[in-house]
């Protein structure tokens, strides 16, 4: 995996299926972090130098997506900006931002509408990818 990622990131060597089992078992044993603690836990994992920790952070967010609210969008934006790469942004935008923005559409003006004109390529990419899981209800005019 390190070679595939052009040696830009460090890895423990834990394969994705094994990591998913670890996360699933952890959640079964300990539950998800409470909504107010979720950002702290995700930031701790995201700041770790090993790539599997960042992926575990995203896994936690996906498991907690029903708990995500407007207060988590700055966290998601920070994640997109701090460890930007295809695998992170392409997952965070539709899997984490998408459900949250679909649940609270008024947030679209506060985030993706600003991201689409941001100089940062990763924010612009997130603005295009967030509705991937709900194509049939996407406001097509927003993207034209």
Automatic annotation (TrEMBL):
It comes from the Bacteria. It holds the Pfam family DNA_alkylation. This is DNA alkylation repair protein. It comes from Sporolactobacillus shoreicorticis.
């Amino acid at each position: 995996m390190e070679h595939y990622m052009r040696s830009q990131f460090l890895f423990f060597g834990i394969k994705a299926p094994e990591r998913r089992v670890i996360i699933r078992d952890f959640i079964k044993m300990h539950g998800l972090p409470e909504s107010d603690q979720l950002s702290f836990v995700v930031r701790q994992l995201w700041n770790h130098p090993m790539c599997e920790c960042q992926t575990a952070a995203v896994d936690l967010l996906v498991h907690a997506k029903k708990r995500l609210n407007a207060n988590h969008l700055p966290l998601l934006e920070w994640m997109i900006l701090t460890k930007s790469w295809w695998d992170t942004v392409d997952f965070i935008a539709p899997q984490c931002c998408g459900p949250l923005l679909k649940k609270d559409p008024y947030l679209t003006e506060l985030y993706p509408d600003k991201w689409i004109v941001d100089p940062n390529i990763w924010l612009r990419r997130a603005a295009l990818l967030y509705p991937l899981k709900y194509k049939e209800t996407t406001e097509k005019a927003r993207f034209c």
